[in-house]
TrEMBL record:
Major localization class: cytoplasm
Species in which this protein is naturally found: Maridesulfovibrio ferrireducens
Domain tRNA-specific 2-thiouridylase MnmA-like C-terminal: 285-358
tRNA-specific 2-thiouridylase MnmA-like central domain: residues covered: 225-276
Name of this protein: tRNA-specific 2-thiouridylase MnmA
Swiss-Prot/TrEMBL catalytic activity: S-sulfanyl-L-cysteinyl-[protein] + uridine(34) in tRNA + AH2 + ATP = 2-thiouridine(34) in tRNA + L-cysteinyl-[protein] + A + AMP + diphosphate + H(+)
Gene field: mnmA
Catalytic residues, chain numbering: 107 (nucleophile), 204 (cysteine persulfide intermediate)
Keyword Ribonucleoprotein carried by entry: no
Disulfide bonds: 107-204
Length: 362
């Protein structure tokens, strides 16, 4: 697949134009900011404060120093109320209805490419630069679109599949053709200290990635205990509240059985946790809702690649449009998709056709 943005072409695109770079304080966005400045862009830095934590204050202090070194204006914006309303509250509601949400995927369209990008445009920025490991390509069949980053271990296209087409194609991803190792090497070469040297945790607003404790601390009214049954209907014991479990979970069930058991369904109406064997974890397909089309559906191939978890290879699937939903029929053997997670859809060569939220497995 031919890249549309190598560094020479990127220089032609950004030179003399005002580009806002979304900076978190981490290595990736810092290097993106520096690269765009070196390529001749009129760079401004935009940092969103989402949580008001000590870590955020540390990031701002470090970013002020780095931006001053390069003569870049830094705009620190308070989005705590928006983040709570658009990311945290839906996260809680999804858990209460039995789903396992992916808040990072919601943060990108709502916050980073939403309210933050809107603020950047108010500062006169034409384009938004980020530190995501994705590429923009000129696809021979579908035109300009986003695709997997060259470093497949850091590829973040899965998390951008819900960002509207116009917004994601107005973004610049300087790291898309590079590896994480090269990012650290380039920063070291320039003698740049990273404000936040540690990698961000999986869910930034959940301490220690313990979502159960987070929900308790938020004083959410949580559903109580109920029965645990086998898929055959045999009662095995009691669960502690369906919100504590996720589809496919094996550990922490507190149930002894002659072979390993997994969560295969959560019946909210009857407050039942339904377990089954590994053989029952498979699925023949899934339905995705709230679909974001990065390429018009009538141009999609009949067989696509679908990825239903971040750390999962994409798999072949037939796809059709049913009203506003996508219905996938898996061609390859596929583990049971988890409601609330993203279904990201790719071409065979790794370009992103779109994405949606998994409603149920089939």
């Amino acid at each position: 697949m031919e890249l549309s943005f190598s560094y020479p072409e990127l220089k032609d695109l950004v030179a003399g134009r005002k580009v806002a770079v979304a900076v978190s304080g981490g290595a990736d966005s810092l290097l993106s900011m520096v690269i765009l400045k070196e390529l001749g862009a009129d760079v401004i830095a935009v940092h969103g404060c989402f949580l008001g934590s000590e870590k955020s204050a540390l990031a701002v202090a470090g970013l002020e120093l780095r931006c001053a070194e390069f003569g870049i204006d830094l705009h620190v914006l308070d989005f705590k109320a928006e983040f709570d309303k658009m990311v945290i509250e839906p996260f809680i509601k999804d858990y209460l209805k039995g789903d396992t949400p992916n808040p990072c995927a919601q943060c990108n369209p709502q916050i980073k490419f939403g309210v933050l990008y809107a603020a950047a445009r108010n500062f006169g920025a034409e384009l938004l630069g980020t530190g995501h490991y994705v590429r923009i390509v000129e696809h021979p069949e579908y035109g300009r679109m986003i695709a997997r980053g060259a470093d497949l271990g850091k590829d973040q296209s899965y998390f951008l599949s819900l960002v509207p087409r116009e917004d994601v194609l107005n973004a610049i991803f300087p790291l898309g053709n590079h590896s994480k190792t090269e990012t650290y090497s380039e920063l070291e070469k320039r003698g740049l200290k990273i404000p936040l040297s540690s990698e961000s945790q999986e869910i930034c607003f959940v301490p220690d990635d313990d979502y159960r404790q987070f929900l308790i601390d938020r004083d959410v009214k949580l559903p109580g205990p109920g029965d645990v049954i086998l898929s055959s209907g045999e009662k095995l014991g009691r669960h502690k509240g369906l919100w504590r479990y996720t589809h496919g979970q094996r550990k922490g069930l507190g149930i002894g059985w002659r072979e390993p058991l997994y969560v295969i369904e959560k019946d909210l109406k009857r407050n039942l946790l339904i377990l089954g064997t590994k053989e029952e974890l498979g699925a023949s397909g899934c339905i995705a809702e709230k679909v974001n089309f990065l390429v018009d559906f009538d141009k999609w191939p009949e067989t696509v690649r679908i990825q239903t978890r971040y750390r999962q290879r994409s798999m072949s699937s037939k796809v059709k449009l049913d009203g506003d939903n996508l219905v996938f029929e898996f061609v390859e053997q596929h583990s049971m998709p988890t409601p609330g997670q993203i279904a990201a859809v790719y071409t065979e060569d790794g370009a992103v056709l779109g994405g949606g939220i998994i409603r149920k497995a089939l």
